[in-house]
Amino acid sequence: MKIITCIKQVPASSNVQVDPKTGVLIRDGNNVKMNPFDLFGLEASFMLKGYDTESKVHAITMGPPSATAVLNEALYMGADEATLISDRRFAGADVLATSYTLSQLIRHIDDYDVIVCGKQTTDGDTAQVGPEIAEFLGIPHIPYVKEIVEVKANSLVLRSAYDDHEEIVEIEMPCLITIEKDMNTPRLPSYRRKQLKKGYQINMVSLKHLEDQNPDHYGLSGSPTQVDEIFPPQKRMETEKVVGSVKEVSKKMFEILKESRYV
């Protein structure tokens, strides 16, 4: 089984800076970490690998050259291969452009049975990249997977958890799945694997390697949604005392909420 696992480098804290012109996060390689949800995705990939000794886990990410740090972490955890797709023309990509870029990378790799993603990222929280990759590739997908029930020759049987119910679904390969955070306990990077991977060269891919090399389909140019303005929220507290009969108080409360656009 060939398993591609999508991971991402995200800010390690909420103290992040934003480019005032483009409205995108400034990613300089400092104060960053692997997206926590992707740790569960990696562990799920290793679980799938355990069903077949011939299986391989290929970790991929999109980002600046400094994003090789999370790929190395994935290698030290147990990934067999790693690829970074990086190009200045990918900068500023929204969810759709990011998904398209990753789908183009996966087409370039062109050797997979299962694509595994974390449920979402902590810097975007949209939970849309995984499903959109599947749509661009034209393959089925299952979100919110919390259990691998069975691995068959050409399909997976999975338990998927939604807000109000769970369901067991069988999906044919090739396919894409996104992993819930309570599915497993991610392993730590191994010093032994770090030594074994010494000298390993992470694969580097840029726009020139892709099937679609039109720069208008990537980065800010390929993003249908763009940030108009971004600013830190103002922290303030205002109090107002309302007195009167029950009817008068409820009417005044409604007016206050309406004025504040809560209703």
3D structure, described in words:
- The chain has helices at residues 36-49, 68-77, 95-109, 129-137, 191-196, 246-259; strands at residues 2-6, 9-11, 32-34, 56-62, 81-85, 114-118, 141-151, 155-161, 166-172, 175-179, 203-205.
- It has six helices and eleven strands.
- It is globular, with a radius of gyration of 22 Å.
- The protein has 263 residues and is an alpha/beta fold.
- The chain has one domain (2-217): HUPs (Rossmann fold, 3-Layer(aba) Sandwich), CATH 3.40.50.
- A hairpin with a 3-residue loop joins strand 7 and strand 8 (155-161).
- The chain has a nine-stranded mixed β-sheet with strand order 9-8-7-10-6-1-4-5-11, sandwiched between helices.
- The model has no long low-confidence stretch (mean pLDDT 90).
- Helix 3 (95-109) packs across helix 4.
Report the order of strands and helices.
EEEHEHEHEHEEEEHEH
Number of DSSP strand runs? 11
Question: What is the number of helical segments per DSSP (H or I, 4+ residues)?
Answer: 6
Superfamily at the CATH H level? HUPs
The structural class is alpha/beta
CATH architecture heading: 3-Layer(aba) Sandwich
Strand order of the largest sheet: 9-8-7-10-6-1-4-5-11
Number of domains: 1
Shape: globular
Distance, first to last CA: 52 Å
Considering DSSP H and I runs of 4 or more, what fraction of the residues is helical?
Answer: 25-40%
Report the uncertain regions. none
Mean pLDDT: 90
Radius of gyration: 22 Å
Which CATH first-tier class would you pick? Alpha Beta
The major pleated sheet works out as: 9 strands, mixed
* CATH topological fold name: Rossmann fold
Strand content: 15-25%
